Request: fold
Amino acid sequence: MAVVKHPVPAVLLLLVGAALLRITLFGDVALRYVQEPLRPYLAVTGAVLILAAALSRVRDGRGDGHGPPRTAWLLVPPALALLCWAPPALGSYTAARNNPKIVADYDHFDPLPTHGAVHLSLTEFTARVQQEEAQSLRGRTVVLSGFVTPRTDGAWDLSRLLVSCCAADSQSLTVRMHGIHSPAADTWVTVTGTWHPSGTLGTTSAAVALNVDSLQRIPEPKRPYVDRPPA
Reply:
């Protein structure tokens, strides 16, 4: 009786394993989907899958005649996508439909520099606007960075997406922009401006918004899900 060989499982394991190694070992592509601490685990998983592919071929050579389920073919498109064209990080589409990130209460705020523009993360800007009783941002020039999320009313938000583990658990941070037309969606920018006066600083009535004086386009950061002040 002829031996029936099924190379499909081995090919699928090889494709998925190679895709994981590609996004973890060659560049920073993996950081579009997971946080930095999970990157080594993806690399190990990729190596294990490639080893499993080799073992699968050895097993097939011994005459295992059981074929793979048809659903196994569903793994081919995502594996090829990661190998040939890695999908981008989450952006404005997700931010516009996502649950807003609740900024935790700050125990205290460090003093701001006496002079010059203040570089802040979106998290700290939001907290200072709505929690800081000293209202130290009043009249101060602020510098923020993030990506553009257009709004349905024609305005736009400066956004960041934060993740705890991977892109699936993302939450959005947004600051409303005033005074300048929206660049293209998902464009990463650094904006300079002053707090948009609406409500009362240091209270939840304060608008998390900025009157923009200038805007500069910047490359997407290597770690897009980390909310940091502009350099």
The CA atoms of residues 145 and 190 lie 4 Å apart. The chain is about 30% helix and 20% strand.
